[in-house]
Amino acid sequence: MASGGSAIRGSRVGAGPMGEQDRGFHAERIQVSYWDALGNETVRYFAANLPDEEIPETIDCPTSGLPAGRDKENPPSVAKLEPYKTHLAYVKERRTEKEAEQLLEDALQQLRARRGTAS
């Protein structure tokens, strides 16, 4: 017969007579509803003694993955997804040689100025 641990089956490990009301199922809680842009409601529970400033205004909705806010009439808007950019799109955005040379020159001047003041 295999046995392990000293806890009685079905008992809560770590539950003692002190502080049991402050955690677990006995803790006093408040219910806060969040709505996303699609109208999905998500309910979260927070400790009743938690100040209002510590309860988040927005969360990520687990059903849609969109942001969800506490205001049902004005939920956060749907996040705008940018289309996937190919390597060629990034190549087209690169700076010209003249711009790159100017950036390099500016950076070198800043470094020389710092060296001159540090010496």
What's this entry about, in short?
The chain has helices spanning 87-93, 97-118; strands spanning 29-36, 41-47, 58-60, 67-69. The protein has 119 residues and is α+β, with helices and mostly antiparallel strands. The longest helix is centred in the C-terminal third of the chain and has 22 residues, at 97-118.
List the helices and strands and how they pair.
Elements: E1 29-36, E2 41-47, E3 58-60, E4 67-69, H1 87-93, H2 97-118
Antiparallel strand pairs: 1-2, 1-4, 3-4
Characterization of the model:
With 119 residues, the chain is α+β, with helices and mostly antiparallel strands. Among the domains are: 29-69, Single Sheet (Rubrerythrin, domain 2), CATH 2.20.28; 81-118, no CATH class. The protein is 24% helix and 18% strand. The protein is built from 2 helices and 4 strands; from the N terminus they run E-E-E-E-H-H. The chain has helices at residues 87-93, 97-118, and strands spanning 29-36, 41-47, 58-60, 67-69. It has a 4-stranded antiparallel beta sheet, with no helix packed on it. The mean pLDDT is 80.
